[in-house]
Amino acid sequence: MNKFRRITGEIYVAPDKSISHRAIMIAAIAEGISRIKNFLYADDCISTIKCFQKLGVEVVDEKNEIIVKGKGPNLANPLDVLDAVNSGTTARLLSGILAGQNFSSKIIGDESLSKRPMKRIIEPLEKMGAKIRARENNFLPIEITGGKLKPINYNSKITSAQVKSCVLLAGLYADGVTKFSEPHKSRDHTERMLENFGAQIESNKNTMTIKGIAKLKASDILVPGDISSAAFFVVAATIIKNSKLRIKNVGVNPTRTGIIDIMSRMGAKIFFENEKTINNEPIADIIVESSQLKSTIIKGSDIPRLIDEIPVIAVAATQSEGETLIMEAKELRVKETDRLKAVASELKKMGADIEELEDGLIICGPTKLKGAKVESRNDHRMAMSLTIASLVADGKTTLKNPECVNISFPLFYETLKKITK
Ligand code: S3P
Question: pTM for this one?
Fold first, then answer.
């Protein structure tokens, strides 16, 4: 990672990962042909495409568009296991759809995904009538025998869009109204997209209802830029002096803009321009200028709105004046890696004043970081966060396994190169 002095220019970031997954899945079970523009061609979403192809769905890449020939609610019995590889969203949302099918199927994943908890989706799906077998009742491989489902009223103890989406997708196959509530509101892309595809779905704060048995109708989708990918550049342009950056066409759904609110609260200069709504999703250009940050406290309903951005917020906090406290973020321990442990130990190697809490982090700043040998732990968001940290560090930083950015943002390093002057 070479030295440079500031960040300027205009960029696009990777298309939204959450919306890309949902676009394939929902188009697959709709009737008719859906066209997806600006789809995220990254490893996680390719895993979703491959699973649905095995389920008999024709997915064709044509002139920068993905064309999904929807099979309607009933998919084909796959001849092979379905491999979600590294993708929690694939495994958990797909499970909801498989629960409504007339066959048994098995989902597997890589080493990281096989350590991530599945009980959170097994429990509601079993209540709906699906038969499920999983390793230690909690981990992949998971075998789902689907069938006719019954609607449930489910109060989730955790806030998770993956769990919510799994239940809502299963709800399409249950005769009656399925209700789901969660402690705080998680990202609502599934609800917005299902509505576009004709589902009868309603949201009231943290409670959602969906009416089954539903038939979905194909719809075209334009995927906006991913705010979780933009976050790395929002932080970089803020903490690197004399920077000014425009990030174009980013999804700014209020369930995802925690990074903007928190960074603004910390003193960042961030503005939106060219705001519009496409496919029920708000989009804007994000303009960021450098500024001196001050510390803050991040907890409660903030957490789901910036869950994937905490590693890079920790980097921002090392450059902020005072003590930043992140709490009630235990979910970070069950992401692609234990992100609380990973962030604390890797940033410590770079000289950060950071302490790992059971459910969060305490970071004191500002600290002059120093280059070090750091490890991504094969976690895409760790790799990108550590790269941003290296930009404000003295000396050379060497990152192990940098290529794991392919999970969500294959052009990350090229994009960064374009704006470092
Ligand atoms: C996602 C939801 C979040 C997030 C993940 C993507 C989604 O996970 O961390 O990267 O697309 O629904 P949880 O639902 O487990 O919090």
Answer: 0.98
